[in-house]
Amino acid sequence: MAAPFNPPTNFADKPEVPQWVPPPAPTEDLDYAKLHSLDLSLLDSPDPAVVQQLVDTAKIAIRDDGFLYLVNYGISLEQLHRQFSIAQYLHRNISEEDKERLHWDPQGGLYAGYKPPFGWRTIKGKYDGISQFNFYEEEFKSLDRVPTCVHPFMDEITAFCDYLTRSVNRRLLKLLSKVLEMPDDYLWDNIESHNDTCINEGYLRHALFAPFKHEEKGMGENLRMFGHTDFGTTTLLFSVPVTCLQLWGRDAIWRYVQYSPGALVVNIGDTLELVSGGHFRATRHRVHNPPPSQETFERLSVVCFNGSKGDLRMQPCWESPLIKREGCFESQGAYKEFKALQDKGVPIPTNKEWREISIINTRHPTDEPQFKEVMVEGVKMFEVINQGVRVLQPV
Asked: Helices in the chain by DSSP H: which ranges?
């Protein structure tokens, strides 16, 4: 049975951290996506029938939605709120000197460091109200790479990230390996990047979405982030009350993801869609302005983006009994486009190349000029060519 999270508790020698207080949930009757909820603790059940039911539910959730709620994964609500309090503390106390010193450079293919609330490029762009600090491998190796204000809390941040990657995500990948009918550690051993650091080739993000002032509300077509898929294996996003996250359904309708206290909102990245031959769905999602009842609230976000081994060139797990039996789904986005490239005899990008070009070409609502717009089956899409791969994202 998986051990629960056991974080450092030596708070006495640290600065006082004001407690993060979750804002109230929206009062509107919103159109919510109907997502499956998976109890990760059931993976340890001694009853094979219970485990198989969990696997069957996971198979449906990742095929139909690509998003799911994960509960009972080992972190208590109190422990989680402590991490949100630390993230809030970072954004309240990071110095102007550290903002400049640790300024990010996404044009280099990484989101590492501090993102100011002015666009999605290295240079200052239009105000977008989104501040971030992104912890990559190097940030966990050296205190010089993180804001001075969180130096006293890096033991807690590191322990938290380590638990997310080595316990929560490893168990989740075990479950997904079972869906592929492969050995339990297939995805962990062969696809997921893991070494002696807690984050490996992924990253941990502390993000703060400031509420827009009245004159800013229409900025970016009422969007904070455009529709996109994540480029890694899995994304672990902690559910928050300020309701902005939307996912693109198979019926081409954007729906909100409802707040579920303490739950992890998990989505599948491009890598796992490719490995599964389209059985796992990398679902497009975006960040919208919150509903009117939450317009004055900050949205604090803590996210763990898990990464795959950088030198791998992704292709389906042909030895999977599931794929042998049911074949691949060429209608899926990432898998369909990668296969088209492969069919032409063109080498597909490595994981490292794919994530770096995806970061470099990230499009944001405040960007100018606009990317190319195309119509696909009556739906307006943005088109980008990344490493020869055609990427389509709904507006």
From this structure: 48-64, 77-93, 96-101, 137-141, 154-163, 170-179, 186-190, 270-275, 321-326, 333-343, 351-360
